[in-house]
Amino acid sequence: MRAVITGGTGGIGFAIASHFGKAGYQVVLADLNETLLQQKTAELSQQGITADYCLLDVTDQQAIENCASRFPADILVNNAGIQHVARLEDFPPEKWALLLNVMLTGPAMLTRAMLPHMRSNNFGRIINIGSIHAVIASPFKSAYVAAKHGLLGFSKVVALENADKNLTINTICPAYVKTPLVEQQIAAQAKEHNLTEQQVIEQIMLAPMPQKAFIDVSEIATMATFLCQDAARHMTAQTLILDGGWTAR
């Protein structure tokens, strides 16, 4: 069974790929940087994992079609993501469009391209990597929050449209995960709020979380693997929140 993971060379994506590979799945890393794709695929192969890669820009429809044709997925993990932090009036329109294209339109079009294979085999697992910002908001992240909120609505519609098949779609929504993307956010938030980076971590990022800890990539990878098991076959259109108690307040 084949799992295609977008943003597969990044912290979350690579952890998911490694976890799936160790569980016996064939994994395909999909990302923008071919050199990095080759390096990460080689790392997986050295672990005895059956791995390949696909050079993919999720904003390019032709690239999406080519990836789906070359690597039809039984499991699709929509993980690719970017961030830009600014007040709305300072938000470049082209940057807004890019964030929505990468994190909402891209997953929708890739899912669209992969669905015929899944439906013909009467099996499919689509796992979106959302965010705590799919259910709550933070200032200066209007495009990111809009994209992640949209991902939940998109998932519900796809679940309903494919309820006649053994096909599920769910969204994993972690609070802050210590990845390069979040490291960049820390620096950007420090500039925006005129704080030190440590103050951003303590006063902004982890302040709303009762457990006061970053989410580990292994937690997300384990949950993604669970969603592909028979025990989760009736779990669809769901939002799975890993937030250390944040949204309980």
From TrEMBL:
Keywords: Oxidoreductase. The keyword Oxidoreductase applies. PROSITE patterns: ADH_SHORT. It comes from the Bacteria. The keyword Oxidoreductase applies. One of its GO terms (molecular function) is 3-hydroxybutyrate dehydrogenase activity. InterPro entries: 3-OHbutyrate_DH, Sc_DH/Rdtase_CS, SDR, SDR_fam. Its EC number is 1.1.1.30. It holds the Pfam family adh_short_C2. Belongs to the short-chain dehydrogenases/reductases (SDR) family. This is 3-hydroxybutyrate dehydrogenase.
